Amino acid sequence: MITIHNSKVTPFGGIHLVHKQVIAKSFPQLIQDELGERSANAEYSYSDLILNMSYTAFCGGDCAEDIGYVMPTFQDLKGLKVPSPDTILSMQKELSTPALTLESDNGVKNKININDKLNGLLVKTALHLDVLKTDQTDYCLDFDHQFIPTEKYDTTHSYKEQKGYFPAVASIDNTPVYIENRNGNSSVKFNQLDTLKRTFALLGANLINPSRCRMDCGSYLTKVCDWLNDGGTKFYIRAEQSEQLLFEASLSEDWKKCTIGVNDYEVCSIDHKFGKYTHRVVAYRWHNKTGQVSTITADANSYLFIITNDREWDEKTIIEFYNQRGNSERLFDIQNNDFNWNKMPFSFLEQNTVYLIIMALCHVLYKWLIRIFSKACSFLQPYHRLKKFTFRLICIAAKVIRTGRRQAIRLFTKAPINLAGISP
Fold it and tell me: In whole angstroms, how far apart are CA 214 and each of 211, 233, 308, 322?
């Protein structure tokens, strides 16, 4: 027999443990300090906005309307006010900034949205939660563009023949640190140096100075390489294949055999004039499956190139280091599928930029939380994705009990949770 009781029981008891950590770390105060206060008549603060969006994602929600389902639970969280879905959306619109429309040399109009205030909060959140630290000398900045297919009022077709947005994303250790949104028809090369300058300026202002930078062939630009070299940053960029590079590599007599992972290659380094400087290009090749001989190289090999200003590491180390970009690109998978980048709520690019950055903030908050709770809960590991965190910790039945003036939370679980280990 099934009966229904109207008692104060929640299926999301673990969110009380999360909120206790967030309050103890003074994260809401950081949000207020960075974003400022709303109007005197406003009932909800920006910290209410960001915490409600983050907690909804932790509970498995993927849209503003899901706040209605978790609202009874959130109303018992001390110091948190719970807005309606419409208020959640209107508050995000308040944080939007006007987009720039810049025309490329070939007449393409590129719409770019820069939100300095939210990007500043993103970096400060990573520092405040000890996800990143200042004055680290071994940080590597990964920079890439992520096409997000979506049908919105102002989306445009990309080279992938889909409508969507094409944000530029910078990250360190899989932690997002800077995001600029762009329309879908923007070239990854357009105005890229300005984006990199803004990224490095923001990081530098917060005493984060990456010593290395990894990028794909979309960043194979003379002005990017020159600027990074002038700034003393070691860069590793996939060089686009060209007849000149293929010809220069084929003339090298320094090829040597090398095993990377489970594959055998031949590797060498050549000097290549690119922009103001002669840079090192690490080349590696392997026998192609067709056996077809190239008219340029006069051999039956496939070639790849990495341009760099690093003349200390050997070829194998540089190739392995560059290939770690594959791990960094997991960031896009996590943002799309765990933190709902693939479900943008607005019709316009400027407002969706706010959403993208707030959900990146949610990701940074999660990285801090999973590190804390994995030390106190044997069923969690620091590398676990959000779904396991939700199922194993958040989805614990709990009852709110009030005795006198105190509120207590009774958790109903057999899971081995060391509450002493997660006390603030």
Answer: 11, 10, 10, 7
What count of other Cβ atoms lies within 10 Å of the Cβ of residue 254?
Answer: 11
The token duo for 228 is 């990074």
Distance, CA of 196 to CA of 210 (rounded, Å)? 12
pLDDT at 6 over 70: no
Place of tokens 């040597």: 256
In this structure, the number of other CB atoms found within 10 A of the CB of residue 238 comes to 18
Higher pLDDT, 143 or 415: 143
Asked if 239 contacts 306 with a C-beta cutoff of 8 angstroms, the reply is yes
- For the stretch 320-367, pLDDT in tens is 999 998 777 789 999 999 999 999 999 999 999 999 999 999 999 999
Question: Considering only CA atoms, which of 354, 412, 417, 305 is closest in space to residue 97?
Answer: 354
HSE-up of residue 131 (Cα within 13 Å, Cβ side): 27
- Higher-pLDDT residue of 179 and 10 is 179
- Tell me phi and psi for residue 255, to 5 degrees: -65, 135
CB 267 within 8 A of CB 315: yes
Cβ atoms within 10 A of the Cβ of 226, count?
Answer: 16
Please choose, from the candidates 84, 65, 63, 77, the residue with its C-alpha nearest in 3D space to the C-alpha of residue 20.
77
Can you tell me the distance from the alpha carbon of 70 to that of 343, in angstroms, rounded to the nearest whole number? 19
End-to-end CA, the chain = 42
Q: Which of 424, 421, 417 is nearest to 378 (CA)?
A: 417
Strands 168-172 and 140-145, sheet pairing: antiparallel
Residues 153 and 183: their CA atoms lie apart, in Å, by: 11
Amino acid in position 207: L
Distance CA(239)–CA(307), nearest Å, equals 6
The three-state DSSP-derived secondary structure of 298-322 is CCCEEEEEEEECCCCCCHHHHHHHH
Confirm if 211 and 138 have CB atoms less than 8 A apart.
yes
Distance, in Å, from the CA atom of 272 to the CA atom of 145, rounded to the nearest integer, reads 26
Could you tell me which of 162, 176, 185 has the C-alpha nearest to residue 112? 185
